[in-house]
Design a protein that fits this description.
Belongs to the ABC transporter superfamily. Macrolide exporter (TC 3.A.1.122) family. By secondary structure, this protein is α/β, with parallel strands linked by helices. Helix content is 36%, strand content 27%. The strands form 2 sheets. A 6-stranded mixed sheet has the order 6-7-8-3-9-10. A 4-stranded antiparallel sheet has the order 2-1-4-5, covered by helices on one side. It is globular and about 55 Å long.
């Protein structure tokens, strides 16, 4: 059997506000198989973003185990976390966070250059991904020249540029109208599956969650 892309064991996160302790995550156990797309469902404030920050190695202060592609990463130093994020993870957020002075292709090329790719190969990879997302005619457009849905498609291409083992998406269509959200999510799911990546997608939308391979629910800091 293939080793899980992601394994969480007893993952916990607490905050102290005044004299009160707030337990946001309380002993999370989760395993995601290679190529599996899992919806993380829960209302706003339930801890979905906190869980993704833990898996994405974007914040410290967590207890428990985080294994990505078989490696324990929870206690890595800053440099080690950067390497894991660069080599094994892709990120899609509610807001696209594209670089405004770079065109669509350049936004997808840049993480590949950081990863060590040669420019011609990075250009070709960016063109392939953007064309697969229906943006073959928008390759040289800057974010300000793209619609909200088009900008989010560029963000999806950027997340997949370095062929990550795991894509983390935090409300990836939350800033789009319903029709555009449906289109972008369908393209996201299709391309992630074609690329062979796994994905953990945080959403509060039951209907969108139902289009993924499996749904886990975050309630009062625990998964069901």
């Amino acid at each position: 059997m293939n080793e899980p892309v992601l394994q969480l064991a007893s993952l916990a996160r607490s905050f102290v506000q005044g004299d009160a302790r707030i337990d946001v995550l309380r002993g999370i156990d989760l395993s995601i198989a290679p190529g599996e797309i899992v919806a993380l469902l829960g209302p706003s404030g339930s801890g979905k973003s906190t869980l993704l920050q833990a898996v994405g190695l974007l914040e410290g202060g967590f207890e428990g185990s985080i294994r990505i592609a078989g490696e324990e990463v929870a206690r890595l130093d800053a440099h080690g976390r950067t390497i894991v994020r660069r080599d094994r993870l892709g990120f899609v957020y509610q807001f696209h966070h594209l670089l405004p002075d770079f065109n669509a292709t350049e936004n997808v090329v840049l993480p590949q250059l950081v990863h060590g790719a040669a420019r011609p190969a990075a250009d070709a990879r960016a063109t392939t991904l953007l064309t697969a997302l229906g943006l073959g005619h928008r390759l040289t457009h800057r974010p300000s020249q793209l619609s909200g849905g088009e900008q989010q498609r560029v963000a999806v291409a950027r997340a997949l540029a370095n062929r990550p083992a795991l894509v983390l998406a935090d409300e990836p269509t939350g800033n789009l109208d319903e029709t555009t959200a449906d289109i972008v999510l369908a393209e996201f799911l299709r391309l992630v599956r074609e690329e062979g990546s796994a994905a953990l997608v945080a959403t509060h939308n039951e209907r969108l969650a139902g289009r993924m391979d499996r749904v886990v629910r975050l309630h009062e800091g625990k998964l069901a």
